[in-house]
Amino acid sequence: MLVTPGLIDAEHPLDEDCFSPLKPGPYLDREKRQNELEVEFAEIIQQANKAGDIRFNAGFLDSLKNGVTTVASPRRPNTLPVSIRLPWSTWISSLIIEKNPAKKFVQARSEPVFVSLADGDSRAKSRELQLASEWGMLAPNLMAVGGVALTPNGSRHLAAAGSFLIWRPLTDEYVFGRTINADVLKQTGLQVLIGAGSRRDGGQGLLAALQRADRLGHLDRHQLLDAVTNLGASAFQIPAGRIREGHYADFAVWRADSVESAIFELGRDTLEMVILNGRVVLCRESSRHLVPNADLLLPVEKEPGLYCVIDQAPCFT
Questions:
Q1: Tens digits of per-residue pLDDT, 5-28?
Q2: What are phi and psi of 100, to 5 degrees?
């Protein structure tokens, strides 16, 4: 067995995992593409309204199956289950559309602020970094989500301010037909986090995003692993990084010989168990006899031998 920290997913709209993926791009703008689809989207809105908070369960379950214990998500359920960590954060979906984003940034104080920045190829998206700079938003608590339109010079500005760039390779390629290039990523230094993105944007979970990032070769495996552990904990102000007696831990257990083979080669099939705050929240049949709360673990549909504290979301497709 191999023990790793619980992984940190830097951007995953959890409630959207209930829905079938929208049509792939390429599109110039992630938000505006919805207007081009629109018979499907009306059905999605109706489904979301009916499902309520339970639609988050699909995202929670998918996260746990990727060894993830902490997720940054733009929306939170009214009742948070004891199966995932959602750090407190502020989200600005668009510098162009949202009213007074600079004021919202200031009001967040030192709390992480996720800003959709240069998330597309349109001219408006290319201007967003300049706006963020003019409004005093380049700071260590800025989490720049997107970045497809960034230039190497733009990413240097982010790095100089201590801001983080959240890279979502799979959803970028699904929506825009491309993702952030190597030169842009290299100019950010080590300030890159990894996000799975949502299923409706073509996301396939954090492990798949890491494996795609590894195949692209823009960052080495050490940087990618740091992005979903130590760096993520620092960015989201999570007190983590050491195992101490008497403290409850978040970690994942894998049937693998190395972290690299578990995460970059074998994937979720090797995941044996996930522990959140010292409590088993997901495990395989082979380890269930070791689990104190085994009677609370429910069988996962269509995955024989896998058990979880999360109930299945009825809207999951």
A1: 999 999 999 988 887 788 898 998
A2: 50, 60
DSSP secondary structure string for all residues of 99-161? S-HHHHHHHTTTS-EEEEES-BSSHHHHTHHHHHHHTT--STTEEEEE-TT--HHHHHHHHHT
* Beta-carbon count within 10 A of 8 CB: 29
Q: Do 189 and 151 touch, CB atoms closer than 8 A? A: no
Q: How many CB atoms lie within 10 A of CB 258?
A: 12
Helix (H) or strand (E) run with residue 43 in it: helix 39-51
Q: Which helix (H) or strand (E) is 274 found in, with range? A: strand 271-276
Q: Which are the contacts of 165, defined by CB distance < 8 A and separation ≥ 6?
A: 144, 147, 150, 155, 158, 180, 185, 188, 191, 192, 193
Is the separation of the CB atoms in 278 and 24 below 8 Å? no
Instruction: Report which of 88, 117, 90, 116 is spatially closest to residue 103, judged by C-alpha positions.
Output: 90
pTM above 0.90, yes or no: yes
Helices marked H in 135-257: 152-160, 169-176, 182-187, 206-216, 221-227, 230-235
Is the separation of the CB atoms in 180 and 167 below 8 Å? yes
CA separation for the pair 79, 52 (Å, rounded): 11
Q: How far apart are CA 199 and CA 9, in angstroms?
A: 14
Least confident of 6-20, 158-172, 237-251: 237-251
